[in-house]
Amino acid sequence: MKKVLFILLSVCLYCNVIAQKNPCNTDVAINYKLENTDTTIVLKNGTEVTFNRCEFFDIKDCVEFAEIRTVDDLRAFGLSTMDENGNLLLSCGMFYLNLENGDCPKKCLEVPVKIKIPMLSNPCFAGLSTNNLFIANSSGKWVKSNEPTKEFIGKNGQKYFEFKTKCGAKLNCDQKLKTNIVKFKSKNLKTINSLTVTSNCPLIKAT
């Protein structure tokens, strides 16, 4: 009986060692072409994040990602809804991807991650122009990207904005918002050091 238990324990320990290795780096993976499969993660608000299965195995313990959909989210990530030229943008959803955490083996992926954002359907959303993909610069302002995007209606009737990226970034589905110039006056010649205007309807944070 003791010999049987010892053999079983040895087998289990061996299986545990094998389980820690990326299965895509084995002959079995090559034979069954597992490198072509995907891993899709669905977040709280319905954002779908699809990684290449093999690459995700290598980064799963260090990759960070999050949906950014409210004014509180904007504050937490130090973002505004203004582009680098000071134009106010109307966001239909943002996403944060970080591959710089800890000892992550890859700062950029070989196979792009596909991100599918459920577009904000607030009745205050204007929808006056074409949505584009923007990437945040170091100051939290948005710079227009030339990466291809796609908009489509899902099976549940939800409209989605889809794009791909290889590297970590703060990304935004945006369109320029037609606005009037607003001036703020200070009484008694007091200087305004900083001023932030926020709105949930539509989603705006301008500093």
Could you characterize the architecture of this molecule?
- The chain has 207 residues and is an alpha+beta fold.
- It is built from 4 helices and 12 strands.
- The chain has helices at residues 2-19, 27-32, 53-59, 71-76; strands at residues 38-42, 48-52, 64-68, 89-98, 108-118, 132-136, 142-144, 150-153, 159-167, 169-176, 197-200, 203-206.
- The strands form 3 sheets. It has a 5-stranded antiparallel β-sheet with strand order 1-2-5-9-8.
- A hairpin with a 5-residue loop joins strand 1 (38-42) and strand 2 (48-52).
- The radius of gyration is 23 Å and the shape is globular.
- The protein starts with a helix and ends with a strand.
Tally of helical segments? 4
Instruction: Choose one word for the global shape.
Output: globular
Helix content: 10-25%
Distance from N terminus to C terminus (CA atoms, Å) equals: 73 Å
Strand order of the largest sheet: 1-2-5-9-8
Layout: helices, strands, pairs:
Elements: H1 2-19, H2 27-32, E1 38-42, E2 48-52, H3 53-59, E3 64-68, H4 71-76, E4 89-98, E5 108-118, E6 132-136, E7 142-144, E8 150-153, E9 159-167, E10 169-176, E11 197-200, E12 203-206
Antiparallel strand pairs: 1-2, 2-5, 3-4, 4-10, 5-9, 6-7, 6-10, 8-9, 11-12
